[in-house]
Amino acid sequence: MSYLQNAARELETILSGREVRIFAVETSCDETAAAVVQNGRVILSSAIFSQIGLHKAYGGVVPEIASRSHAEKICLVADSALKDAAMDFDGVDAIAVTSGPGLVGALLVGVSYAKGLAFALSKPLVAIHHIESHICANYLTHPQLDPPFACLVASGGHSHIFYVGEDDSYSLLGCSQDDAAGEAFDKAARLLSLPYPGGPGLDDLAEDGDENAFRLPVPRTAGRYDFSFSGLKTAFAGIVRKMQANPEALPRADLAAVFRKAVVGALVDKTVLAAKENGIPVIALAGGVSANRLLRKRMREACDANRIRLYMPAPELCGDNAAMVGAAAYRKLKRGQIDGLSLNASPSIRLA
Ligand code: KG4
Ligand code: ZN
Question: How would residue 352 be classed by pLDDT, with cut points 50, 70 and 90?
């Protein structure tokens, strides 16, 4: 029997309603991750090797170093996910993998590994879009949550507002016209001499600063629900440069707080506007930036004020991990959507 015939037979038993354990892999950028997720909602294990230490010296992700490190670590991380879930590959019902977008060499490591595993185990293979997986992290933190809702996805490469339909469909309501929110945080952090990735460090530094110490322009965009962060970043760079004559006296905490307030303000205002104007009573957050403390606080306040229900992933599920890939794959499997062994990495595929 061919691989596809075997996988289709397995899928049939999955659709009959039994417990499903998905082994998921994520290698789209600088985290090598593997996880076991049960029924799309329960994390049995989630192993992550972060490459931050390898890229730090370069101030950003070096694609060649990323791919080589993924290739080196993927088997170790996979073994550790299985061990933590107290199972072996015989207990796996399906394999899930991020197939894009991301760094092509990095994606290829995960995709090749997952295809090999699916073939060896004769189990269904499910390819997952990276943004979709970030959105699905919410299903792990909130087992009762189901679409429809509006979702702000803010990460290093993306700033999008999606409408997630009841049928798990995605439509784009707004997006950044230039830099992503995480990218803007990382660039501002570099100006404040914070190590890569600067978002979390800037968030920490901002806690001790005065967010009204300086004025930054309010970004203007053509679309009502779109973002623009590059003007903000340029204005911020101008303020920092002017003050840099005396680096000792640089009010780094104030500067971090002012920048954080400006980015968070745009993210909250546009997302709440999109939800209100489109009659969507539920908002979810997703992506690395959704770990930002001020974003979580201001979004909560804005949603409460507008009687909108808000769902946020647990902070440890905001960044890249494989558990969210398993959560997304379960929903695809339940719709009978599986992939063949011709699956390839798609470095710039769109979600909607
Ligand atoms: O989702 P993610 O882990 O990877 C991508 O898919 O890009 O997001 C990483 C981004 C980085 O830009 C990082 O600086 C940012 O999320 N980030 C934060 C915080 N934690 C991570 N930005 C602001 N505040 C944070 N607490
Ligand atoms: Zn991500």
Answer: very high
- Which residues lie near ion ligand 2 (Cβ < 5 Å)? 155, 320
Name the residue with the closest Cα to ligand 1, atom 2: 288
Question: How many angstroms is it from 88 CA to the middle of ligand 1?
Answer: 32
Residue type, 306: N
pTM (2 d.p.): 0.97
Q: pLDDT digits over 163-190, tens only?
A: 999 999 999 999 999 999 999 999 999 9
Q: For residues 125-147, give the mean pLDDT.
A: 98
